[in-house]
Amino acid sequence: MAADQKPLNEVVFLTVAEVATVMRVSKMTVYRLVHSGHLPAIRVGRSFRVPEQAVHDYLRESYVGVESA
């Protein structure tokens, strides 16, 4: 296990609807991110669960700052 990974019993998983709420996007956008591999997820039956930390990491890496002139 890598130093930055938590044991699975400590990982908080979010539903697609919860991820969409956090990111303020549609559920379809979350599904696209999962299917394209941009957002890691696990499949539980017919649904997906996304680690909460993965959502925060994705948002942090996607942040676009505006440089002042």
Number of helices: 3
Profile the largest sheet.
3 strands, antiparallel
Topology as H/E string?
EHHEEH
Oligomer designation = single chain
Low-confidence stretches: none
Strand content bin? 15-25%
Word description of this protein:
By secondary structure, this protein is of the alpha+beta class. 42% of the residues lie in helices and 16% in strands. It is built from 3 helices and 3 strands; from the N terminus they run βααββα. It has helices at 16-23, 27-36, 52-62, and strands at residues 13-15, 42-44, 47-51. The protein has a 3-stranded antiparallel β-sheet. Helix 1 (16-23) packs across helix 2 (27-36). The longest helix is centred in the C-terminal third of the chain and has 11 residues, at 52-62. It is globular. The mean pLDDT is 89.
How would the blueprint of this fold be written?
Elements: E1 13-15, H1 16-23, H2 27-36, E2 42-44, E3 47-51, H3 52-62
Antiparallel strand pairs: 1-3, 2-3
Helix pairs in contact: 1-2
Describe this structure in a few short sentences.
By secondary structure, the chain is α+β, with helices and mostly antiparallel strands.
Tags for this model:
3 helices; 42% helix; 3-stranded antiparallel beta sheet; 69 residues; alpha+beta; globular
